[in-house]
Structure to design on (749 residues):
């Protein structure tokens, strides 16, 4: 069967089970948009290519399936660089298709030409410049294989216009050998010796902590984690990338570690004698000052990517494996620590002394951002998916929302990409339309990508957006207050400019505003009754609120600052 | 032939260097991927030589001398191995390898005053490969140390244009750990 390269590309995506593409057409990708009309694949027409990338990420994080985005060459391609970089930092499976100028024009500075494979070399797991139509099926199959196996990540396929316009004989790779990836071996046999040494370390430990990272979610290991944690009785912390991997309601869960982590989670790691890292990468936002991080702990490091071993912290035992398989092996060996009674008594005393804290809200406002999140959470349907931008609101969302299952927390971790929240919420809702999706956003983040609410309205994707409007770039303001002598430089945004309610309405959404407690409860109720169009709520929050606990950048986790109301106790 | 003695560390080489013999797919951009990885991770490359691999049109062999001070070798190899086009990596510690590189140099000198130069070349074991009345071009295929020594010796001459290839290496034969 003869197909054009464009037809082959769409057919290859169908072959991979793709149900949704987030994208925006343009000159070089035009041929591919024609057969798309005849395809069963849904296309979400974004208003900016960055939106397409973050939507694909939101889709992937909420569903566990790879997100797919398609854009044109030149500026279309460069506009999606940020989401690609974001997905690379957070190991999110993404397949991005970019149009390219015709092969004969490459290298001539042709209209809308850019070297997108060169630009994204360092922020993709791999990328391809497809040279002939016949090669398209192999590139697509290999891209999905690379994006979803081993340590997942973004893969880019750059397709020149003449390649999509020329004819090919349809075929599709049936086996991994046909992907032609001789250097790619994502799965390695579990090292039984390493498992045995890990079991021995566990047997000696009196103060272990399970340090759960995003790799636990990526390898669908929530069930194995629950079984292992309950059998061994160990305390669990879940990083920003792993929220939802272990139920927040579980009594063994201490919450999030790191710069804005729970006091008990941070301190349990610091005082532990054994740290079992499960798909985590000792990020600087978790470790603080590295020599002071869990200084007395032995480390068992489980990761699918062997380059993570000894990168930041020397591991006593390194197990190269996906988290699920490693936990099954440890469980099969009946790895058991010593009596954890004293350890738990110490941890419980920290929890009692230093829970999360914020000042009581006043009836007239301004609202406490933490209280707004708790109120939304209390009124939300079970299984609600939460997305966030980056900054104070993101930390509060991670702290105050109670996550009970994988795929319910969608955020930008390693890259810290402001503006992630709204498009990611759209992608999550497209992937899991039966779920309620709330975006907890900041006013700074919202202004970066809000135009995608037009997409949401046009495509019938009824997400809910809560803007915690404190009129500032809040996290930067917090640092300037605490570390720059309250010299506020370029952080004021204004609560009233733009008018978020009118802006929401102009984009076809319902716009609501809450200035005090009565309005807060009212608008949350109202938003929950709307299921056909997107809702945006402008919550006027207190500008002076800061995220606590906090470990200053580069400081030891031992120097964690708790909420001012708790400082007499510490 | 008996194995050559280990000459120790030499001037152009870091104190703790390793030689990575990297088999890669012969695809466009592979060298850029390797160079980009070293640049963005802050790993230092001392020399790099590329040629088609023996008997395979599909593969090339890249010999990279890396500075094991700038980053742990385990990190360098781990990150390199993640490049999809990298098929295999062999790590050769200097003690376990035979290394050679090629040096070419053109020295400006008139016919009447060539005796000191010829002595220097004779001592180094270098060969003259091109001559005209005003200059000679010489070559030395030798250990990095021998090339360093010749390079130093040539500093005494007025005008020298000198190129070195960077080294290639193979595992030393007859080592106990290979038995």
């Amino acid at each position: 069967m003869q197909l054009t390269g464009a037809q082959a590309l769409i057919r290859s995506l169908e072959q991979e089970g793709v149900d949704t593409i987030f994208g925006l057409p343009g000159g070089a990708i035009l041929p591919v948009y024609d057969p798309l009309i005849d395809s069963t694949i849904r296309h979400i027409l974004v208003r900016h290519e960055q939106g397409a990338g973050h939507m694909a990420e939101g889709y992937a994080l909420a569903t566990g399936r790879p997100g797919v985005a398609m854009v044109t060459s030149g500026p279309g391609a460069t506009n999606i660089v940020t989401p690609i970089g974001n997905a690379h930092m957070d190991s999110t499976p993404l397949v991005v298709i970019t149009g390219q100028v015709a092969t004969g024009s490459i290298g001539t500075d042709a209209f809308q030409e850019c070297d997108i494979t060169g630009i994204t070399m360092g922020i993709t797991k791999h990328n391809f410049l497809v040279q002939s139509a016949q090669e398209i099926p192999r590139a697509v199959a290999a891209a999905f294989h690379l994006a979803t196996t081993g340590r997942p990540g973004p893969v880019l396929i750059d397709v020149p216009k003449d390649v999509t316009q020329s004819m090919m004989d349809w075929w599709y790779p049936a086996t991994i050998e046909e992907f032609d990836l001789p250097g790619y071996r994502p799965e390695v046999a579990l090292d039984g010796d390493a498992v045995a040494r890990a079991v021995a370390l566990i047997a000696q430990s009196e103060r272990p902590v399970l340090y759960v990272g995003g790799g636990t979610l990526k390898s669908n290991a929530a069930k194995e984690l629950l079984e292992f944690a309950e059998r061994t009785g160990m305390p669990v912390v879940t990083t920003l990338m792993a929220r939802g991997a272990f139920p927040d309601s579980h009594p063994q869960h201490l919450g999030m570690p790191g710069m804005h982590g729970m006091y008990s989670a941070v301190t349990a790691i610091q005082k532990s004698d054994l740290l079992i890292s499960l798909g985590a990468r000792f990020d600087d936002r978790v470790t603080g000052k590295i020599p002071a991080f869990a200084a007395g702990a032995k480390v068992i490091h489980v990761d699918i990517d062997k380059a993570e071993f000894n990168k930041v912290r020397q591991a006593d035992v390194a197990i190269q494996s996906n988290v699920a398989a490693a936990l099954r092996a440890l469980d099969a060996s009946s790895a058991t620590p010593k009596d954890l009674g004293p350890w738990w008594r110490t941890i419980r005393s920290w929890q009692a002394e230093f829970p999360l804290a914020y000042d009581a809200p006043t009836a007239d406002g301004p609202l406490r951002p933490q209280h707004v999140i708790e109120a939304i959470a209390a009124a939300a349907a079970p299984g609600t998916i939460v997305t966030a931008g980056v900054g104070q609101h993101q930390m509060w969302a991670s702290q105050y929302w109670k996550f009970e299952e994988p795929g319910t927390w969608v955020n930008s971790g390693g890259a810290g990409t402001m503006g992630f929240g709204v498009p990611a919420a759209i992608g999550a809702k497209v992937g899991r339309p039966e779920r309620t999706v709330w975006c907890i956003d900041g006013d700074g983040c919202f202004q970066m990508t809000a135009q995608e609410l037009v997409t949401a309205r046009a495509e019938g994707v009824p997400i809910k957006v809560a803007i915690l409007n404190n009129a500032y770039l809040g996290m930067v303001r917090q640092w300037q207050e605490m570390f720059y002598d309250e010299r506020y430089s370029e952080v004021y945004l204004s609560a009233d400019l733009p008018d978020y309610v009118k802006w929401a309405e102009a984009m076809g959404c319902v716009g609501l505003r809450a200035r005090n407690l009565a309005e807060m409860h009212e608008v949350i109720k109202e938003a929950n009754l709307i299921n056909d169009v997107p809702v945006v709520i402008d919550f006027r929050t207190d500008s002076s609120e800061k995220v606590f606990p906090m470990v200053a950048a580069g400081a030891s986790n031992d120097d964690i600052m708790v909420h001012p109301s708790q400082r007499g106790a510490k | 032939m008996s194995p050559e003695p280990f000459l120790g560390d030499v001037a152009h080489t870091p104190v703790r260097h390793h030689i990575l013999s990297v088999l890669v797919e012969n695809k466009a951009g592979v060298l850029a991927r390797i160079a980009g990885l070293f640049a963005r991770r802050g790993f230092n490359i001392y020399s790099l030589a590329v040629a088609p691999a023996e008997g395979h049109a599909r593969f090339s062999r890249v010999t990279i001398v890396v500075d094991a001070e700038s980053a742990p070798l385990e990190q360098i190899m781990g990150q390199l191995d993640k490049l999809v086009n990298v098929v295999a990596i062999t790590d050769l510690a200097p003690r376990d390898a035979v290394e050679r590189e090629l040096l070419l140099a053109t020295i400006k000198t008139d016919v009447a005053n060539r005796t000191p130069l010829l002595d220097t070349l004779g001592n180094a074991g270098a060969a003259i490969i091109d001559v005209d009345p005003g200059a000679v071009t010489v070559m030395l295929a030798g250990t990095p140390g021998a090339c360093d020594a010749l390079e130093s010796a040539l500093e005494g001459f007025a005008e020298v244009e000198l190129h070195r290839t960077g080294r290639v290496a193979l595992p030393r034969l007859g080592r106990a750990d290979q038995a």
